[in-house]
Amino acid sequence: MSKKLVIVMANTDPRNGEELGAPIFQASVAAAMEYDVQVICTATSGRLMKKGVAEKLFVKPGSPKSVYDFIKDAHEAGAKFYCCSPNLDLFDMSKDDLIPECEGIVGGAYLIEEIMEDENCKVLTY
Prior knowledge:
CATH class: Alpha Beta
Helix content: 25-40%
Radius of gyration: 14 Å
Number of helices: 4
Oligomer: single chain
């Protein structure tokens, strides 16, 4: 059984680009290290899964690379991104509004089960 890292982005506010670098970069690094990486975007961070949002955000002003570029890099390395189901209603989104890198929509029970039932799972929260 592979070791799993679940990164929960709940308190990370997309309106502050500086907050977005660490969790997405760590997802890339862990995936490159061949860990099973899941990034759960919930609360305000759920906006990142909506098409067009992350493309307009930058970790550092003037950077040529958008937050969406970092998400694509992490996804390419093997990280899987998920949107929490309440975000669809909260941000007036449908499944069709999600970026292609979003693996799907999950609920709170999914997150709790992943963490509690898998003894090989570690969690980072942002």
